[in-house]
């Protein structure tokens, strides 16, 4: 077993060789605008998968797939000649799903954007359910403290007056004088 670094380096080299071979040596008219996007090699360096995309409709994709299948041996021989490795890996061309996935993601993002716009439109005419500012400000705290202080002073004064009345009543009772 080889290490992953060697497999990745060979995969990158196969991707470049496949792209150059398709560009320079293949003259098949069925081969449309093909882009080699990635290549992967198994850990034992025996099999290589080359991923590609085709610009065009479904018919162009099918024609390009047939043309790539036909030139698979040519690409493998070029890979063997240019890399110089002991065993040339078999080549398999696979249509890359990246454009379809990207299109699907763009559709999902468009739906999310439309939903965000709907929420924003509903929020434009809305008002707060409670107070616009539900948090207490320092001014409110100062007013509350002043009110609490006034109430405490009034309670103290009332308490002192009661104590004074009681004290007078006790002295009057002790001295025998009426109040």
| CATH topology label of the largest domain | GMP Synthetase, Chain A, domain 3
By CATH reckoning, the class of the largest domain would read Alpha Beta
Low-confidence stretches: none
**E-strand count:** 3
Mean pLDDT: 84
SS summary, helix count? 5
Order of helices and strands: HEEHHEHH
- The percent of residues in helical segments reads 55-70%
Strand order of the largest sheet: 1-2-3
Structural class: alpha+beta
Beta-strand fraction estimate: 5-15%
Oligomer: single chain
Name the overall outline: elongated
Protein topology:
Elements: H1 4-24, E1 33-41, E2 47-55, H2 58-70, H3 72-83, E3 90-95, H4 98-124, H5 138-175
Parallel strand pairs: 2-3
Antiparallel strand pairs: 1-2
Helix pairs in contact: 1-3
Notes on the structure:
The protein is α+β, with helices and mostly antiparallel strands. It folds into two domains: 4-99, K homology (KH) domain (GMP Synthetase, Chain A, domain 3, 2-Layer Sandwich); 136-174. The chain is built from five helices and three strands, in the order αββααβαα. Strands 1-2-3 form a three-stranded mixed β-sheet. A hairpin with a 5-residue loop joins strand 1 and strand 2 (47-55). The longest helix has 38 residues, at 138-175.
